[in-house]
Recover the amino acids of this structure.
């Protein structure tokens, strides 16, 4: 092969690798998740809850369920349904939210509840890169905000679970998100919080099942169901003592 042909082959191969990393794992039903090896848990699960306990969820649109059609259920709804009426689940997540934005927002008065779940990183990492109008938040700023949040809620008496950001649907986005997932776990170490990697929830999902929409970022209704039910398995409710 001549030098020119070898150079052309190298360019084609490089372009293929580049495109392959950025093109999502699309199917006719949506996008398959790119699953990574789960980061190690911190804490003993399931957590035991007293009847009447409150679980408060904080995060972005994937926690909130902004992209679902009207009438479809988000994570919090499935969690509430699985745990039953003896506990109260409230979803404070906001679409587009980041760790630093949530830290600024907590200047308002919010009851910590008994369990606080923090899931951030997707917006902080600016996963769409040059295609986005966002700018990635530095890892130091991201971690600092989450440490403050976790410490604040723990000081109010809540048990805090830091969750890594959800899997996405492209290798390129996964590369951008991986450091934020690792930093989320380090936040739990530094703040004395618990840690879960929600990729565990999808480990047994059939390889051809699309849990994400065509944007490769936001979960469809089936993804919320899987994650909400998995999260419910991290809790066990103590039986109420009979009166008298």
């Amino acid at each position: 092969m001549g030098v020119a042909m070898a150079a052309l082959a190298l360019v084609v191969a490089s372009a293929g690798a580049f495109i392959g990393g950025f093109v999502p794992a699309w199917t006719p039903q949506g996008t398959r998740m790119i699953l990574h090896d789960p980061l190690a848990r911190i804490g003993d699960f399931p957590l035991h809850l007293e009847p009447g306990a409150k679980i408060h969820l904080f995060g972005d649109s994937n926690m909130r369920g902004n992209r679902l059609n009207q009438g479809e259920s988000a994570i919090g709804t499935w969690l509430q349904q699985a745990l039953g009426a003896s506990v109260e689940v409230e979803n404070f997540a906001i679409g587009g939210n980041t760790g630093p934005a949530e830290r600024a927002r907590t200047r308002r008065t919010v009851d910590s509840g008994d369990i606080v779940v923090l899931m951030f990183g997707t917006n902080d990492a600016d996963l769409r890169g040059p295609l986005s109008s966002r700018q990635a938040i530095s890892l130091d700023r991201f971690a600092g905000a989450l440490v403050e949040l976790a410490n604040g809620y723990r000081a109010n008496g809540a048990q805090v679970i830091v969750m890594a950001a959800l899997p996405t649907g492209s290798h390129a986005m996964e590369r951008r998100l991986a450091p934020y997932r690792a930093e989320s776990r380090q936040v739990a170490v530094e703040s004395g919080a618990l840690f879960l990697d929600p990729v565990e929830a999808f480990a047994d999902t059939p390889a051809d099942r699309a849990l994400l929409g065509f944007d490769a970022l936001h979960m469809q209704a089936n993804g919320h169901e899987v994650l909400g039910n998995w999260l419910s398995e991290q809790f066990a409710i103590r039986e109420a003592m009979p009166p008298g």
About this structure: The radius of gyration is 20 Å. The CA atoms of residues 51 and 244 lie 17 Å apart. Residues 1-20 have pLDDT under 50 and may be disordered. The chain is about 35% helix and 15% strand.
